[in-house]
Amino acid sequence: MLRALKEEQLTPFEAQERLMLAAGMDAEISTALAPAGLSIDDLVYENSRSLEWKGDLPPFLSSFVQEAERVPVVSFFTGCGGMDLGFEAVGFEHKAAFEFSEIFCRTLRMNRPHWPVFGPPFHDGDVSAFDDVVAALSPLIATPFEGAFIGGPPCQPFSIAANQRFSKLGPNFKRVGFDHAKNGSLLFDFVNLIIEFRPAVFVIENVPGLRDVDGGEQLSLAIMRLRKAGYKIAEMDVYDASDYGVPQYRRRMIVVGSRVQGKFEEVQKRTPIGSGSVLSVMPGCDAFNHDTRNHKVMSIERYMRLDYGQRDHLGRVDRLDPTRPSKTVIAGGSNGGGRSHLHPEIPRTLSVRECARLQTFPDDYRFFGSIARQFTQVGNAVPPVLAAVLAKRIARAYF
After folding, report:
1. Which residue numbers are catalytic?
2. Topology of domain 61-272+380-398, per CATH?
3. What are the boundaries of each domain within the chain?
4. What angle do CA 243, 249, 250 make, to 5 degrees?
5. 2-50+273-366: which CATH topology?
6. In terms of DSSP H, where are the helices of the chain?
7. Of 25-29, 133-137, 265-269, 320-324, which range is least confident?
8. How confident is the model at residue 305 (pLDDT cuts 50, 70, 90)?
């Protein structure tokens, strides 16, 4: 069939339309393409390859100098390890990582078997269980702790993106902030552990909504408690990852505090990097976490007519522009639980591996679990390169 299409001198776009029309709108795209021996990655948009990223690649974690000289670090709410990878790249040495999700813990142990990971099935990893965390950590570190505590308390109660999916009047609206029965109090659980072990430096990471919820009252209370315990707040600002070498717009609030002398220098911004820097070269056939979604023909029919940066409002997905940073990678993925963006040059959603590239995870970093949970891990993570930039400044200022 492919030969017949070539003999008709059809463009690739016209040929794929012919194949999809023959298969029907309800068919899966793999079924429509099979007679011509094509795969989903052979598809093209109506306007294809008219834009191209010609600038720099994002920094590799391996390019960071190890300036921390094995300064110890303990992470809480570790997730799949985005923040931890950044600190590792700068030379920090992991003493412990606490994570509540068993799937996330499996990802951590698969990639970093030498890290002491406290979480299921061997430990509950629950940071709110103060006595259990103290009992687990006390044999490993001294008090005061001459290293860093890092962590991002789960952010869903404060997230704007999570709540745009629901009506504010509906039962599923989630931006309840510190009134959330569990996650809303985890910030204070983390503060309690900082006060207990007195690390030289701490980093609290979260979405910008943490700063604004309840008029800023609860965050101010947490900061006041830390200052009363002798900490100087060196930094409390919102960072956009695209300003620091990450090919993605992603805003995170960072709070850095210390009980030791030092001056935290402002992190210098750089020219944003386009998503095409990491998406123009396809992951290989043996790449980890690169299963692509088998869309329906009706979805591909809509996607392929989108121009760069345009949104498919029915599917609520955006075609990325390769010359600009990606929109924020969202926790979730195929078969529900969220959505990813559309590849700049292939009318399909991104794979987990492609989203991980936008987050600056190395290609050899593997994510455990179902595809939906892989997307959750990637979408919840701090971009490792952003974490490395921050860790570099902390190392220079305090260690």
Report:
1. 155
2. Rossmann fold (3.40.50)
3. 2-50+273-366, 61-272+380-398
4. 95
5. DNA Methylase; Chain A, domain 2 (3.90.120)
6. 2-7, 12-23, 29-33, 82-89, 102-111, 130-137, 160-163, 186-197, 209-212, 217-228, 276-279, 297-303, 352-358, 371-380, 384-398
7. 265-269
8. very high
